[in-house]
Design brief:
Domain CENP-V/GFA: 1-135
Strand content: 25-35%
CATH topology: Metal Binding Protein, Guanine Nucleotide Exchange Factor, Chain A
Helix content: under 10%
Strand order of the largest sheet: 5-6-7-8-4-3-9
Structural class: mainly beta
Protein name: Mss4-like protein
Number of strands: 9
Order of helices and strands: EEEHEHEEEEE
Shape: globular
CATH architecture: Beta Complex
InterPro entries: CENP-V/GFA (IPR006913), Mss4-like_sf (IPR011057)
Pfam families: GFA
Distance between the termini: 41 Å
GO molecular function: carbon-sulfur lyase activity; metal ion binding
Number of helices: 2
């Protein structure tokens, strides 16, 4: 699938022909990042995109922010137009996840059917009936290590 930022400076192909999953995230961080009611995330394997090529890396800026449970999030954006392109989570031990989250609005031809809604406890718009939804994050999420039971 083709990915393009708003100005077209950042352009690349996704590592696989389709995402592993699509989420509409209603958390307050995604609301701020998208300047909207929610952010749409297409989950892809990081392999094939990371490590970033020198050409792509030269066009992207990176801002790292804290995330839940001691994790951090490397947020990549176009240096020309400022649009968030993708992010990748680092676990508390510093290990990068095996997945990358590409912002759904930049993935040409992305199929939104069956998208899951997460962090609906912060939703500012109605969530459609009959969709998969979680108050926070799902128990199982692509790329996230399994939670251990204590």
């Amino acid at each position: 699938m083709d990915v393009r930022c708003q100005c077209g400076v950042v352009a690349f192909k996704t590592p696989t022909p389709a995402p592993m999953s699509v989420y509409h995230c209603h958390c307050t961080e995604c609301q701020k990042q998208s300047s909207s009611a929610f952010g749409t995330s297409a989950i892809f394997p990081a392999e094939g995109l990371f490590p970033l090529s020198d050409e792509l890396q030269a066009k992207l800026g990176c801002w790292t922010r804290p995330a839940n449970e001691g994790r951090t999030m490397d947020c990549y954006f176009c240096k020309a137009c400022g649009v968030r392109v993708m992010h990748r989570i680092r676990e508390a031990d510093g290990k990068e996840r095996e997945t990358v989250v590409i912002k759904g609005g930049l993935v040409q031809g992305l199929n939104f059917e069956g998208a899951k809604h997460i962090y609906v406890r912060s939703a500012v718009v109605p969530i459609p009936d009959g969709v998969e939804r979680w108050d926070a994050e799902p128990d199982k999420m692509e790329g996230r290590p399994e939670k251990t039971k204590e």
